[in-house]
Amino acid sequence: MNTRRKFLAGLVATASIGTLAIAMRKNNVAMAEEFEITKTKEEWLKQLGPERYAVLREEDTERPFTSPLNDEHRKGTFNCAGCDLPLYSSEAKFDSGTGWPSFYEPLENAVETSTDFKLIYPRTEVHCRRCGGHLGHVFDDGPKPTGLRYCMNGLAMTFEPAEQAS
C-alpha cells in the first residue's frame, strides 16, 4: 500500500510540474508579441533554415562539439542569428569544456532570462532581448569575475570579427 501511495504521489507531482511547464511555455509564447522583432513561423523558417529555427524558435539544443563557434578565438562579437543583435564580446568567451560556446557575461542590454522547466527542474533560459530567440542557458559554475557560464548554442549566433587594424 505504501508503495502504491508513493507511486500515485509521484504521478501527481509529475503531472503538476508538467502542467506548470506548459503554462509557463504558453506565457513565454505570449511574451513573444512584445519583442521588437517579430515574424511568422514561415518568415523565421525562410530566414533561419530548419536547424537554426529549431534552436532559436523551438528552444532545441544542438549537439555538443558541433558548432564552429566553439573553436572561434578571434577578437570580435557574437551576434544573434535571428536579428543580428550583438550579444557577447569575444573577450568574455572561455572554454568551458562542455562543447558549446561559453561566456561569463553578455553585452549590456543584449539578453533576457526566463525560467525553463523542460528537464523538470528549473533552469535559467537565455534569450535575445530583441527577437526572443532561444540562445541557451546560464549556470552559476563559470569563471571570475561573474562566476556565471552562459552556455550558448552556436546555431543561435553568428560571429563578426573585429576590423583589422591597417
Give a description of the structure.
This protein has 166 residues and is α+β, with helices and mostly antiparallel strands. It has a single domain (35-161), classed as Peptide methionine sulfoxide reductase (Metal Binding Protein, Guanine Nucleotide Exchange Factor, Chain A), CATH 2.170.150.20. The chain is built from two helices and nine strands, in the order H-H-E-E-E-E-E-E-E-E-E. It has helices spanning 2-31, 41-58; strands at 76-80, 86-89, 93-94, 102-103, 111-116, 123-128, 134-139, 149-152, 157-161. The protein has a six-stranded antiparallel beta sheet with strand order 3-4-8-7-6-5. A hairpin with a 6-residue loop joins strand 5 and strand 6 (123-128).
Quick overview:
With 166 residues, the protein is an alpha+beta fold. It is built from two helices and nine strands, in the order H-H-E-E-E-E-E-E-E-E-E. It has a single domain, classed as Beta Complex (Metal Binding Protein, Guanine Nucleotide Exchange Factor, Chain A), CATH 2.170.150.20.
What's the β-strand tally?
A: 9
The biggest sheet, with number of strands, parallel, antiparallel or mixed sense and barrel status, is:
6 strands, antiparallel
- Runs in which pLDDT lies below 50 for 5 or more consecutive residues are 14-32
CATH superfamily: Peptide methionine sulfoxide reductase
C-alpha termini separation: 78 Å
Strand coverage percent? 15-25%
- Secondary-structure element series: HHEEEEEEEEE
The secondary-structure class comes to alpha+beta
Radius of gyration: 18 Å
CATH class: Mainly Beta
Shape-level CATH architecture: Beta Complex
Estimate the helix proportion, in percent.
25-40%
Tally of individual domains: 1
User: Count of helical segments?
Assistant: 2
Shape: globular
Strands side by side in the biggest sheet: 3-4-8-7-6-5
